[in-house]
Amino acid sequence: MHPWIADRTATFDSSGIRKVFDLAAKLKDPVNLSIGQPDFDVPEEIQQATIDAIRGGKNAYSPTQGIPPLREAIQKQVDEHFGHDDREVFISSGTSGGLTLSMLAMVNPGDEVIFLDPYFVMYPALVRLCGGVPVPVDCYPDFRLDVDKIAAAITDKTKMILVNSPANPTSVTATEQELCDVALLAKEKNVALLSDEIYSRFFYDGEFYSPAVANEQAIVIDGFSKSHAMTGWRVGYVHGPKEIIATMLKIQQYSFVCSPQPAQWGALRAMDVSLHAHVDDYRRKRDLIVAGLSERYEFTTPGGAFYLFPKAPIESGNRFVEQAIDAGLLIIPGNIFSRRDSHFRISFAAPDETLHRGIDILNQLAAKS
Fold it and tell me: Which of 215, 277, 319, 348 is the most exposed place for a label (fewest CB within 10 A)?
């Protein structure tokens, strides 16, 4: 390693997803079921609101905490839903920015952070970036949020429990009881509870539940990236206790500065854009891919988001993904999201024709295994 490079950068690798994309670069017309973002474009009225903001001169830095109209609109929703006396909102540079600020604000070197395995790729990397210790809790084979497993992982060094429902990469949704149990456990143990709710609007069966309902000290991260296809716009938001939020804002001043101002005006318009048609369409896509693969693959049916996390028909998920790429199908190996190498991730955020082609290739590969 070059002598100028900081030691902390050696504690985690580059995103394995990018490595898969490099491997697939040789494919001329791949069947792409790898991308973790909606396949529809940003709704027209959101685009127009952003264009109007740009042409109206709203191109400078915004306040660090976000433009007042957007922040106030989200604060109103949060107050109405949670009713907590001590809960403030700020606008982050995407949910990834919110995650980064949360870790920097709360995790000291040596602190332990608990989350489920499989996990979103950023979780262990961000914990290590702060000098913390990732504590993945195995939740195979059904990927449930088991409060007893979480409780067993708590030590005197535990600083945070991080939950993600609907989850990436499994798309499993925790039940209200599971989330409530973990929320109360964090409260009892005086451990920070961080809830990553970026897929909250892609919820197919029942009603979404936030663990912050049961734990007034919980910190919640959400945003517009997935729900409104605004992944490149970098508009997320965080809400939680005032002192925690103030600390995150202090760090934002010296790092991200603010979320892009024109995109925030687009996000303000997005709050009035109905997503029901898209959610219904993605529920249908979920049902399509579940029906298409259920005879040859083992998996837990997704309750939200837009992923499927099947068990590979051979011993190594990584080798199976290589076989799939050779067959023209781009998917992601499960060991990018896990300490196990037994599964793979599909994104069903794709046109129906692509889904059908992917299902055919996967069933053909399973038949040969």
Answer: 277
